[in-house]
Amino acid sequence: MKSPTRPVDQALGSLQTLIRRAAAAGASPPASTRRLPDSAGREPEYLGLLADEVQAIETAKKELSADPRFEYLHDIDAAVWQFTADCWVDRQTDHVPTFIDKNAREPTTEACYIPVEHLGIETATNLFGVRFLPAEDESVPPAGPWFPLDYSVGCLAVVNVTGTNHELMATRARAIATHALRVLRIALREHDEINGRQLRFRLSIAYAFNERISGLARREDAAYELVLDNTLINLTQSQLITAMPIQPSNDVEKKADVAARWIERACLIDEPLLALLYLFFALEALLGDKSEGLKAHGLAFRQTMLSHITTGGFTNPSETWFLYDQVRSSAVHGEDVAEVGWGTVQNFASVVRRALSQYLKLARDNNLTRRGRLMRAIDSHPDRAQLIFWLRSQGGAEWTKYLDRIEDTSSEIGRFSQ
After folding, report:
1. Are 145 and 103 in contact (CB under 8 A)?
2. Which pTM value belongs to this model?
3. What are phi and psi of 122, to 5 degrees?
């Protein structure tokens, strides 16, 4: 009986078919060009890739990364590019089974031991898919430089995990153990005599599979040393935020202070979703309107308008709108939220920091001390029509309803004069 085709086989097969097709007359120019491997000692050869071929390469890499048989590969990009080159040079051989046979490893299932800090247990116990062992249990791998078991470790979480890369296997084990500790914290909170600080137990950064295989994972909330040199000092002193007083004296300063505190919280939190929410709280403190129906559109539009007033250029508000609509609102209303990466958070953080500086600049340049008047200065700016026109042609259908409303209801602006 023929074994079922796996996603990796399908992805590699599709890539092979695309690379071998005949060039069509009037075809689009290459979207990317890469040097073929194994060209040492002779003239370098390059292969031009069309857009769908580039996408097929990325799909193959994604499927390989998700398949435990191949996760041990340290350079999946190089492996896929070698496969692509083989398909281009030798157009008769089916290179898919050759690649599979050469690179696939049979996954193994092993127990991953992860120390738990500030949580003890009297006897070995299975809870929520995880086995918890006392720190002194004889089955625990011996302590070592990569597997420290100091005084803070009261027990170990043991998770059986399958794969071919111990580092990635440990990451999956940590996810399972983290879920178990989350459930444990919430369940234990029902005990009236347990102090909330007793529920701050957490996984150590260490892990071990046996006495020979161990390692350390970087903690998300890890801090790194920073030395202030003259360049950094000059940078900080050039920022408008340095003029903010310790005690705000007017409405504009109070809202700026609230925003600064949320931005700081976003810097210190180790969870990207929470960091993104904190950044939105900061932006809403500056530019939000509680009475606005389409809050995502209004906040994003006003942020862009503020940027234009203070810098003279327009930035696309759709990213802010999307993150508010798809992440912030979904999270606040208890809906499932797509995973948010730190790259997204860092990009949005720069948007919010700029908004704070621009908010302070607009207030300073126009001697505005009340947030309502500052909002009115943004919403009544004569260049607002330019942004509306641009969004109608470039923003997409999701902006139509909001733009119709703010264009047809000029009296909306007057409510900020209070």
Report:
1. no
2. 0.75
3. -80, -40
Amino acid at 211: E
What are the tens digits of pLDDT across the range 350-367? 999 999 999 999 999 999
Coil/strand/helix, residue 85: helix
Identify the bridge partners of residue 125 per DSSP, sorted by sequence position. 132
Residue 39 dihedral angles phi and psi, to the nearest 5°: -105, 15
* Sequence-separated (6 or more) residues with CB below 8 Å from residue 397: none
Output the CA torsion sign for 309, 311, 316, 318.
negative
CA gap 165, 110 in Å, rounded = 11
User: For 132, phi and psi rounded to 5 degrees?
Assistant: -105, 130
Instruction: Please give the Cα distance from 124 to 131 (Å, whole number).
Output: 7
Residue range 44-87, pLDDT digits in tens: 888 889 889 999 999 999 999 999 999 999 999 999 999 999 99
| SS (HEC) of 307-360 | HHHHHCCCCCCHHHHHHHHHHHHHHHCCCCCCCCCHHHHHHHHHHHHHHHHHHH
Write out the DSSP string of 374-414: HHHHHHT-TTHHHHHHHHHHHT-GGGHHHHHHHHH-GGGGG
